[in-house]
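Figure S7 source data.
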Amino acid sequence: MTAVGLDTPGPASAAGQLSARGSTNFVHPKWAGFDIRVGLAHKLSKPVCYLNDANAAALWGHYAIFGADSRRTSISIVIGTGNGGGIIIDGNVVKGKNGFGAELGHVLIPYQSIAGINGIKAQCNCGRLGDLESLCSLTAIEKNILPYFLPRYPGHDLAKLDLHQAAKLVRGFADRGDALSKEVFRVQAHALGLFFDEMVNTFDPDAFIVGGGALETSEQFQRWFIDEIRAAMPNQREEQAAIPIHVMPNGDTAGARGAAIEALKLARQGGMV
Ligand SMILES: [Zn+2]
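Tokens for the predicted zinc ion complex:
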């Protein structure tokens, strides 16, 4: 029995039908509403299972840390252009009724409590004000955080570039110790800390996992970032303060690996989707 695992950026239904409203990564109008899972299954004449890319990465992270057939709970966040996530309970991905389960980037957070960003306009592409993605994503850096900090650091090198270009350079600047860029990453880490605090009280999970482009940095910077996340999770009970925060194993191949794990489950079930 061979089965194929497919993951793509969302939004898409749990069964792999791309959103009828289109998506950032499937620009041509003919992709709108396309059933990419069934399309691939026809092309390959093999059963295909589907996960969105963040859910697939979450599944890999869970598997890599806890092993196969684990009954534990983990919450993953992937910080990229947007902010995706995944929740694994009893070894299974939470997909939800419409496939929008664990759209963690669009969960609202009490961002007003983050120090040093008084009056920031934390607008997300989804229309919400102050969700996780609005302060913890590459898009957030470009649209919200850099425009807030640049006027406070007159003459900064990043101010000479357009925001789209500058946003991509912030990670490297921060890793090398630039003060403004570290502030940008502190804000992202604290936003994530507030979000994890909500998740601690919702799921009491075994682990948090953080991945995505934001953490393609030196190990020293990763450690600092995770310490900053922890610093924004006050008032935890003793047991909960010990919940580990891991860096996503295998970086940007995590999604493909997670899709393969899902395919393995499908193969074990005899290929019935
Ligand atoms: Zn949003």
